[in-house]
Write a structure and sequence with these properties.
Blueprint (H helix, E strand, L loop, with lengths): L2 H65 L4 E8 L3 H7 L14 E7 L6 E11 L5 E3 L4 E2 L7 E5 L9 E6 L7 E9 L6 E14 L4 E14 L2 E10 L7 E5 L15 E7 L9 E9 L13 E2 L2 E7 L7 E5 L2 E6 L2 E6 L3 E5 L5 E11 L2 E5 L2 E8 L15 E9 L2 H18 L15 E3 L2 E6 L10 E15 L1
Parallel strand pairs: 21-27
Antiparallel strand pairs: 1-23, 2-16, 2-22, 3-14, 3-15, 3-24, 4-14, 5-13, 6-12, 6-14, 7-10, 8-9, 8-13, 9-10, 10-11, 16-17, 17-18, 18-19, 20-21, 23-27, 24-26, 25-26
Helix pairs in contact: 1-2
């Protein structure tokens, strides 16, 4: 072959090799620089999606609890891996070597003590099946109490006979009693008047003489309209006796006409008839907690719903739902995304209103991989583990303690500190002096709510409800 022809063929081969080498350099640069960036972008997008799903899950639980839609199921889907995001972001997703690896993940239901435990303590007023302790009269009810007992006493020596046989009609005593006024503080026109009278029940034996005994009668007037008159509360009352009646008895229908807060007062038109003490059926006792069927008692494990990522191009993260809040864990520590379901607000007369919704995670299971999983959630009716007094300040020195590992205790310390600052601002308006700074001792973080320090006695309206949340996870 002619030498010139051989050289021309060689130049074409060299040119092809150079082009191939250039393509290989470009592909290598793409694999080294572009593919990791695409993988990182996909994993960041995936983590944002997981965070959104966790927030959506919290909102779903909160809305169902607030609306009272309980004993119901709902499902939430989590994408374990970033494969779908990777494919959508890569121009060469059909070529494996030019596509980033899809990440993996796992969803775990953790109801063991390893997830942490909560304890709630307080000096509190709790309901009892009996009459309870007699408390000082209060003039304002902030919410509907379970009972509103009035102890009507006849006295040891009434100036009139409470019964008589064959007495002259003119000697029969007149009806007399006690008037109780209840009205809405915000709208005094909403008024209920309760009249409790000691009234002779007469059985005539002749035109001028009668037998009689004295009964205790109740009449109710709502906003100027008589709803009923002279309903018998107690028959044949005697001197030196006390008759307990619950004004919140549904038969009277009083509580349905009131808008809280409600102010009430009473006046007696007979010196021998009084209701000097108001009894609410409460006793003073520390919170100990009771067992909730199918759930738990205090102190008890918090439980958590956890998503753990296995990212290849971005830092691995763990999102978890616990105590009604959403948290994030990564290599540099743990932080709160959405605060737990605990609020402290300032009520009337500087009463601290503390509301705790304790979401108790029940169930177990783990599913990992790169596909999707479904978390099935069943919300049971919220329970109130403490039979706290209602309608009046019922606690003081409320402490919330979280027992966990030291790193998580620091996270709860930060969370409580942020919440304490948040509660000092509108719409909560709670002075920071009402709440002590949280403390950490080993693996225990404690938040203490003291309330207004100048109020002696009970200065906190505490409400604790526990929401049993049964979870299961499946592919």
């Amino acid at each position: 072959m002619h030498a010139q022809n051989r050289e021309n063929a060689l130049s074409e081969i060299i040119g092809f090799v150079l082009i191939l080498a250039l393509l290989m350099v470009i592909m290598s640069l793409y694999v080294v620089y572009v593919v990791p960036l695409q993988g990182r972008e996909a994993e960041i997008h995936h983590m944002e999606s997981v965070e959104g799903e966790m927030i959506h899950y919290k909102m779903a639980v909160d809305s169902l609890v607030i609306s009272g839609t309980v004993d119901s199921d709902f499902a939430t889907t989590f994408d374990l891996g970033s494969q779908s995001a990777t494919r959508s972001s890569s121009s060469f997703y059909s070529i494996p070597v030019l596509s980033p690896l899809g990440s993996s993940g796992s969803v775990t239901i953790n109801s063991t003590a390893h997830a942490g435990a909560i304890t709630i303590n307080a000096d509190a007023l709790q309901m009892t099946s009996g009459t309870g302790n007699t408390l000082p009269n209060v003039s304002v009810l902030y919410s509907r109490p379970a009972h509103l007992y009035r102890n009507i006493s006849t006295g040891s020596s009434p100036p009139q006979a409470l019964f008589g046989l064959n007495v002259a009609n003119s000697a029969i005593p007149k009806s007399t009693g006690i008037r109780i006024d209840l009205f809405s503080v915000d709208d005094p026109a909403q008024r209920t008047i309760i009249q409790i009278n000691a009234t002779p029940r007469v059985d005539r034996v002749s035109t001028s003489r009668s037998n009689y005994q004295t009964d205790l009668l109740i009449s109710v007037n709502k906003n100027g309209i008589d709803t009923f008159r002279n309903m018998i509360v107690a028959e044949n009352i005697t001197k030196g006796s006390t008759y307990r009646m619950d004004l919140w008895d549904p038969a009277y229908g009083i509580e349905t006409s009131l808008t809280y807060p409600v102010s009430f007062s009473s006046v007696s038109y007979a010196s021998w008839l009084s209701d000097a003490s108001t009894n609410y059926g409460y006793v003073r006792a520390p919170l100990t907690g009771v067992l909730i069927p199918g759930a738990t008692s205090y102190p008890h494990p918090l439980g958590s719903l956890e998503f753990r990522s296995g990212n290849a191009y971005w830092i691995s993260q763990t999102y978890f739902y616990q105590l009604g809040g959403v948290f994030l864990e990564q290599d540099d520590g743990k932080t709160v995304i959405l605060s737990p379901a605990i609020t402290v607000t300032r009520g009337r007369n500087s009463i601290a209103i503390v509301r705790i919704t304790d979401t108790a995670i029940l169930g177990s299971g783990t599913v990992g991989g790169t596909t999707s999983v479904q978390v099935q959630s069943q919300i049971s009716s919220p329970k109130r583990p403490f039979p706290l007094a209602q309608g009046i300040p019922n606690a003081r020195a409320v402490t919330i303690s979280i027992d966990t590992d030291p790193e998580s205790a620091q996270m709860w310390n930060t969370t409580f500190s942020q919440m304490r600052t948040m509660w000092s601002e509108p719409p909560y308006n709670v002075p920071v002096a009402w709440i002590s700074p949280p403390t950490v001792a080993g693996g225990r973080c404690t938040l203490t709510i003291n309330g207004e320090p100048t109020i002696s006695g009970f200065n906190i309206d505490l409400d604790v409800q526990q929401v049993p949340l049964l979870l299961s996870v499946q592919p």
